[in-house]
Design brief:
This protein is α+β, with helices and mostly antiparallel strands. The chain contains three helices and 13 strands; from the N terminus they run E-H-E-E-E-E-E-E-E-H-E-E-E-E-E-H. The strands form three sheets. It has a seven-stranded antiparallel sheet with strand order 5-4-8-7-6-10-9. A three-stranded parallel sheet has the order 2-1-3, covered by helices on one side. The longest helix is centred in the N-terminal third of the chain and has 13 residues.
Length: 148
Amino acid sequence: MKVKLIVSAERYDEIAETLLKAGIGISEKSDLILSERNTSINYLIGKKGDVIYRIKTSDISHIESFSHEVIAYTYDGEYRINERLKTLSNMLDPEVFIRISNSVIISTEHIKSIKPALTRKFIITMQNGAVVDVTRTYYYIFKEFLGI
Protein backbone atom coordinates (compact mmCIF):
# COMPACT_ATOMS: atom_id res chain seq x y z
CA MET A 1 0.00 0.00 0.00
CA LYS A 2 1.15 3.55 -0.73
CA VAL A 3 -0.02 6.87 0.71
CA LYS A 4 0.54 10.52 -0.10
CA LEU A 5 2.10 12.25 2.89
CA ILE A 6 1.09 15.84 3.76
CA VAL A 7 2.89 16.81 6.93
CA SER A 8 5.11 19.62 8.18
CA ALA A 9 8.68 19.68 6.88
CA GLU A 10 9.95 19.24 10.44
CA ARG A 11 8.11 15.93 10.91
CA TYR A 12 8.22 14.56 7.37
CA ASP A 13 11.35 12.40 7.79
CA GLU A 14 10.18 10.97 11.12
CA ILE A 15 6.73 10.04 9.82
CA ALA A 16 8.06 8.73 6.50
CA GLU A 17 10.53 6.47 8.31
CA THR A 18 7.80 5.09 10.58
CA LEU A 19 5.55 4.35 7.60
CA LEU A 20 8.33 2.69 5.62
CA LYS A 21 9.20 0.45 8.60
CA ALA A 22 5.52 -0.58 8.73
CA GLY A 23 5.65 -1.53 5.04
CA ILE A 24 3.68 1.47 3.80
CA GLY A 25 5.17 3.23 0.80
CA ILE A 26 4.98 6.95 0.01
CA SER A 27 3.89 8.20 -3.41
CA GLU A 28 2.62 11.51 -4.79
CA LYS A 29 0.20 9.59 -7.04
CA SER A 30 -1.51 7.66 -4.25
CA ASP A 31 -5.27 7.90 -3.73
CA LEU A 32 -4.84 7.70 0.05
CA ILE A 33 -3.63 10.83 1.85
CA LEU A 34 -2.12 10.96 5.32
CA SER A 35 -1.96 14.49 6.68
CA GLU A 36 -1.34 16.34 9.91
CA ARG A 37 -4.07 18.53 11.27
CA ASN A 38 -3.60 22.23 10.39
CA THR A 39 -0.79 21.51 7.94
CA SER A 40 -0.83 22.88 4.43
CA ILE A 41 1.39 21.95 1.53
CA ASN A 42 4.21 24.11 0.16
CA TYR A 43 4.26 22.66 -3.33
CA LEU A 44 2.17 20.77 -5.88
CA ILE A 45 3.24 18.30 -8.52
CA GLY A 46 2.09 19.37 -11.98
CA LYS A 47 2.70 18.53 -15.61
CA LYS A 48 3.48 20.86 -18.46
CA GLY A 49 3.44 18.76 -21.60
CA ASP A 50 5.27 15.55 -20.73
CA VAL A 51 7.52 17.16 -18.10
CA ILE A 52 6.69 16.90 -14.38
CA TYR A 53 7.34 19.97 -12.20
CA ARG A 54 7.34 20.71 -8.49
CA ILE A 55 5.42 24.01 -8.20
CA LYS A 56 5.68 26.21 -5.11
CA THR A 57 2.20 27.10 -3.87
CA SER A 58 3.41 30.68 -3.38
CA ASP A 59 3.90 30.90 -7.18
CA ILE A 60 0.32 29.81 -7.94
CA SER A 61 -2.12 32.62 -8.75
CA HIS A 62 -5.19 30.43 -9.15
CA ILE A 63 -6.37 26.90 -9.86
CA GLU A 64 -9.26 26.08 -12.18
CA SER A 65 -11.19 22.90 -12.81
CA PHE A 66 -12.53 22.10 -16.27
CA SER A 67 -14.56 18.90 -16.26
CA HIS A 68 -12.00 16.28 -15.11
CA GLU A 69 -8.94 18.48 -15.66
CA VAL A 70 -7.42 20.71 -12.97
CA ILE A 71 -5.01 23.46 -14.04
CA ALA A 72 -2.72 25.55 -11.79
CA TYR A 73 -1.70 28.94 -13.19
CA THR A 74 1.61 30.68 -12.44
CA TYR A 75 3.67 33.38 -14.16
CA ASP A 76 5.52 30.51 -15.91
CA GLY A 77 2.39 29.04 -17.43
CA GLU A 78 -0.21 26.35 -16.86
CA TYR A 79 0.32 23.01 -15.11
CA ARG A 80 -2.01 20.01 -15.04
CA ILE A 81 -2.60 18.79 -11.48
CA ASN A 82 -3.73 15.26 -10.59
CA GLU A 83 -5.69 16.31 -7.49
CA ARG A 84 -9.39 17.14 -7.41
CA LEU A 85 -10.28 20.76 -6.62
CA LYS A 86 -12.05 19.77 -3.40
CA THR A 87 -8.93 17.94 -2.20
CA LEU A 88 -6.73 20.91 -3.11
CA SER A 89 -8.93 23.33 -1.18
CA ASN A 90 -8.29 21.24 1.95
CA MET A 91 -4.55 20.92 1.29
CA LEU A 92 -3.69 24.56 0.53
CA ASP A 93 -3.04 27.23 3.17
CA PRO A 94 -6.50 28.50 4.26
CA GLU A 95 -5.05 31.93 5.12
CA VAL A 96 -3.87 32.47 1.53
CA PHE A 97 -6.09 30.38 -0.76
CA ILE A 98 -9.86 30.73 -1.01
CA ARG A 99 -12.43 29.05 -3.19
CA ILE A 100 -14.41 31.63 -5.17
CA SER A 101 -16.62 29.33 -7.25
CA ASN A 102 -17.30 25.64 -7.77
CA SER A 103 -14.42 25.56 -10.25
CA VAL A 104 -11.84 28.13 -9.03
CA ILE A 105 -9.49 28.60 -6.08
CA ILE A 106 -7.37 31.78 -5.93
CA SER A 107 -4.35 32.97 -4.00
CA THR A 108 -5.21 36.25 -2.29
CA GLU A 109 -1.51 37.20 -2.53
CA HIS A 110 -1.83 37.36 -6.33
CA ILE A 111 -4.92 39.60 -6.55
CA LYS A 112 -4.32 42.75 -8.60
CA SER A 113 -7.82 44.25 -8.48
CA ILE A 114 -11.37 43.50 -7.39
CA LYS A 115 -14.33 44.98 -9.27
CA PRO A 116 -17.88 44.61 -7.93
CA ALA A 117 -20.48 43.47 -10.45
CA LEU A 118 -24.20 44.26 -10.39
CA THR A 119 -25.48 40.82 -9.40
CA ARG A 120 -23.68 40.10 -6.09
CA LYS A 121 -20.50 39.04 -7.84
CA PHE A 122 -16.92 40.24 -7.98
CA ILE A 123 -14.63 40.24 -10.99
CA ILE A 124 -11.03 39.66 -9.91
CA THR A 125 -7.99 40.44 -12.02
CA MET A 126 -4.94 38.46 -10.97
CA GLN A 127 -1.37 39.79 -11.20
CA ASN A 128 -0.67 37.47 -14.14
CA GLY A 129 -3.54 39.10 -16.07
CA ALA A 130 -6.10 36.32 -15.61
CA VAL A 131 -9.69 37.37 -14.88
CA VAL A 132 -11.87 35.19 -12.62
CA ASP A 133 -15.34 35.64 -11.11
CA VAL A 134 -16.48 35.25 -7.53
CA THR A 135 -19.87 33.63 -7.95
CA ARG A 136 -22.94 34.55 -5.92
CA THR A 137 -22.63 31.38 -3.83
CA TYR A 138 -19.16 32.45 -2.63
CA TYR A 139 -19.80 36.22 -2.57
CA TYR A 140 -20.29 36.64 1.20
CA ILE A 141 -17.56 34.14 2.06
CA PHE A 142 -15.12 36.12 -0.11
CA LYS A 143 -16.21 39.48 1.35
CA GLU A 144 -15.76 38.22 4.90
CA PHE A 145 -12.41 36.60 4.09
CA LEU A 146 -10.99 39.88 2.75
CA GLY A 147 -12.86 42.12 5.18
CA ILE A 148 -14.56 44.21 2.51
